[in-house]
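FAQ: What does a ligand-bound record look like?

Like this one, built around zinc ion:
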Amino acid sequence: MFLLIVIYLLLAVGVAFLGQNRKIGFTQSFGLSLFLTPIVGLMIVAHSTKKITYFEYQYHCPRCGYNFTEERSVCPYCEKAGHSIPLIREEVTTT
Ligand SMILES: [Zn+2]
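The answer part, i.e. the structure of the complex:
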């Protein structure tokens, strides 16, 4: 009996690990597997959409504070005003 509980818990943890890369997340997958059996939990996790993280770069001008999405070496607005300001590359994450 004890062994069955251990196997059940291990299965629930396994489903939770599968769920951590999904929208549903680790804790919710674990909770569902625990209360609705790991088989039901696995089915819910499989139907949950995958979490996708996008990285993009933004180019920030320290003088005028403007952000550019395309790659530039100097700020075109400050360049017009006679200043050659190198842009700072920043990583932006969106989900
Ligand atoms: Zn600027």
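Follow-up question: can I read anything off the structure? Yes, for example: The chain has a mean pLDDT of 92.
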